């Protein structure tokens, strides 16, 4: 009981005056992160080549502008406790790397941990937040992913706010991505201190893990808003562990959830079908919609006919995005009721977001047959169904 009281006092003291107000993340961030594909095997040549590829593939032009180094760029500290990059793999230094990235019109992201070490045992930032934040600002860093390894057993509510304050003090707007894995329900408190917060463990590139993480997002939609986003972890699209249909579902649902869209594949050698998916302007538009309303699961049916779901989210201009999602290994017929998804009208014109084509006008609901492990992603534009004229009413009654 005493330790709980002490923790409560610490959290109260830490919270006084610590709040993030950097004006960033009014829509979810988009870009690339090194971890999912390369893990610890990164170097400055890879990062420069990836910067080139973001521009050359057209990804940057679609909004993927954050180029984020994950763990393993750092190696030591100097006599003044300033963090130093690996002298072999980042021999040009972080400032020069940041300048190269900025010259491409991109933004520069780095990684640390609110602990004594990073997850890969490199120097981390606990107790050295001011020094590290100042280094990041001097290098031109635009994004910080802040992990939760080697935490000393202290609550994230105590360890994360000091980095918020340190970033504020630099005067440089730096997107702050908290990565405490959903340990202490960050959706309840992290919006004051960060621009996004991880809701789960790391994602893995397979269907079952994707479903596991997806299910943990249910109910979190009310906590997301412009400048403060739930983060179900990075994209696996293109890493090879799922089929193209499964990646379409993964990407579509992450977009609807207003998740950060951070590519985790090697974009220097990305198969054309994955690149086409990631460049889909209509999917990106759902994610970047200025209302910033996170989508939610509207319906789930699990029975002898299989597992199927309907997800939906409100968009600008009174439109609604809807996903018919087949979780099962057999074909499913799925229906989205216009009333259930909150359309506010009996009729809607339906646009296929994945295929990029109009599907026509529908009344009361939209229905489609969905292949296994697949989805149909549509945008509904409401229209009022005119009342029948008295003459039509009489003809209808007569016949």
Structure overview:
With 399 residues, the chain is of the alpha/beta class. 28% of the residues lie in helices and 25% in strands. It contains twelve helices and 18 strands. The protein has helices at 2-15, 35-38, 44-56, 94-103, 129-139, 156-159, 161-170, 207-215, 244-256, 272-278, 281-287, 390-398; strands spanning 30-33, 66-68, 74-77, 83-85, 107-113, 143-147, 175-178, 196-198, 229-231, 261-263, 296-303, 306-314, 320-326, 332-337, 347-352, 357-363, 365-370, 374-383. The strands form four sheets. Strands 9-8-7-6-5-2-1-10 form an eight-stranded parallel beta sheet. A six-stranded antiparallel beta sheet has the order 11-12-13-18-15-16, with helices on one face. Helix 5 packs across helix 7. The model is unreliable at 1-16 and 393-399 (pLDDT under 50).
Mean pLDDT: 93
Instruction: Flag low-confidence runs.
Output: 1-16, 393-399
Shape: elongated
Class by SSE composition: alpha/beta
Residue fraction in strands: 15-25%
Q: What does the largest sheet look like?
A: 8 strands, parallel
Q: Compute the CA-based radius of gyration.
A: 23 Å
- Strand numbers in spatial order across the main sheet: 9-8-7-6-5-2-1-10
Q: What percent of the residues sit in helical stretches (DSSP H or I)?
A: 25-40%
Helix and strand run: HEHHEEEHEHEHHEEHEHEHHEEEEEEEEH
Q: Termini, distance in Å?
A: 77 Å
Number of helices: 12
Number of strands: 18
